[in-house]
Specification:
Oligomer: homodimer
Strand content of chain A: 15-25%
Distance between the termini of chain A: 27 Å
Strand order of the largest sheet of chain A: 5-4-3-6-7
Radius of gyration of chain A: 17 Å
Number of helices of chain A: 9
Helix content of chain A: 25-40%
Shape of chain A: globular
DNA sequence: CCGTATCCAATAAGATACTG
DNA sequence: CAGTATCTTATTGGATACGG
C-alpha cells in the first residue's frame, strides 16, 4: 500500500521509491512492484527519449485507490497513538492536504502554492473550498515552499514556526495556505 | 482488518469470530483481539446477566472504519483476479449489499428482508434508494432468507437460481431484493 | 543506476495440548 | 466455551554482493 501511495501523484523511478520508502530493501521493492504489476495496479513504462528511463506508474484502477488511501489516512490520524511528527514522504504530506483541508477555512481562500522536496515539485491549488494536488513546476504557484516534508508537517500540524521553511514568492499567501489544515480529533 | 469487519454489525463472541474466520487459529485470534483492544479499536465487554458472557465489540472509532471497509470491498471487487464465488461470512455478504446496491434499481424498491445464517439474523432495509443493514429479528423483515452466505452471493452476484435459498414470507419481495445489487465492472 | 540472487535472522502462523 | 502455552514450520524481510 505504501508503494501505491507513492505512485498516486505520478510515475516514479525505482530509486525514487526506494528513497521515499526508507525502510524497504531493494529485493523487497522489486518483489512488491512485481506483485502490484501482476495484480494490475502498477504498470512499468519506459519514458520516451531522451529520458529513456524506466518508471513505474499506477494504472487507472490503481489510481482509484487514492480516495481510499486518503480516507484511511484521515481515519488513522484519529488513533490515540497517532504521532504527526513522524517522518513522512513528499507524497504523504501532499496527500494529507487533501485529507485534512478544513472546509470552513478554505472557503475564504483561493490560490496555488508549490512545494519542492529535493527535486520533486508539487502544486496545491485551493478554490471554492476544494483542494487539488498534482506534480507541477515551481512557477505554477504564487508561492514556493522548500523544506523537508517532515518540517512542513511540523508547521501545518504541529504548530511549529514558519521559519522552519524556506518560502519564495507570496509569503503571506503561503502562510495562510499552511493554516488551512487541521487534524481530526483523536478518538478516546 | 478481517476481525474488525466481523465486528461491524455488532458484538461477537470469541468462537463466533473463530468460526467466521475459518483460517484463524485460537492463538492468533487472541493476539489480534489484544492488539485491536490496545489500539482502541475493540472493547471487551461482559454481557449483563443472565447471558453473563464475554463479547468483543468495535469502539466508536472502530466503527468509523465501516465506510472504508465497504469502499475497499467495492474497489477490490474490480480486481481482474476477483472471484465472487469464494466463501464469505454472513457479515461480509450483508456489508456487500451496502457496497453494491445499484442506485437505479433501488429507486423503485422499498422493504425489509431478513437473513438467517446459522443462529445470526440480519435485516436489510431499502428505502429511497438507500440501504441499511443491522442485526435483527426474523420478524423485522417481510421475507426471511435462510442459507449459506456463499449461496446468497452465488444468487446475487453469480446469477445462480433462487432455489439455492430457502425463502419464507414474501417470496416476490425477496426475489426483487436479491436483484438490486451489481458488482462494479472489472478493471482492465 | 536498476535491479536480481543469495543467504541469514526475525517473525508469524499452524497444530496441539492444556486450563479455569 | 474461552482462551493460554508451547512447539515447530513457513514466510518475510534485511543485508549484501553481483550483473546488465
Amino acid at each position: 500500500m505504501l508503494v501505491m501511495r507513492e505512485l498516486l501523484l505520478g510515475a516514479r523511478r525505482f530509486s525514487d521509491l526506494r528513497s521515499d520508502l526508507p525502510a524497504i530493501s531493494a529485493n523487497v521493492l522489486t518483489q512488491r512492484l512485481q506483485e502490484l504489476e501482476n495484480r494490475g495496479l502498477v504498470r512499468r513504462r519506459k519514458l520516451p527519449p531522451p529520458a529513456s528511463v524506466q518508471v513505474y506508474e499506477a494504472t487507472e484502477w490503481g489510481l482509484e485507490a487514492a480516495p481510499l488511501i486518503r480516507e484511511m489516512g484521515r481515519w488513522a490520524a484519529r488513533s490515540p497513538l497517532h504521532d504527526p511528527t513522524l517522518p513522512l514522504s513528499g507524497v504523504s504530506i501532499m496527500l494529507s492536504f487533501t485529507a485534512m483541508l478544513d472546509a470552513g477555512r478554505a472557503k475564504g481562500f483561493a490560490g496555488a502554492v508549490a512545494f519542492r522536496f529535493g527535486e520533486m515539485v508539487y502544486v496545491a491549488q485551493v478554490a471554492n473550498g476544494a483542494i487539488q494536488v498534482a506534480r507541477g513546476e515551481p512557477e505554477y504557484g504564487a508561492a514556493l515552499i522548500v523544506g523537508e516534508p517532515t518540517n512542513v508537517a511540523a508547521v501545518v500540524y504541529g504548530g511549529a514556526p514558519l521559519e522552519l521553511l524556506q518560502i519564495e514568492g507570496d509569503r503571506a499567501l503561503a502562510g495562510r495556505f499552511l493554516s488551512l489544515f487541521t487534524l481530526p480529533p483523536k478518538a478516546n
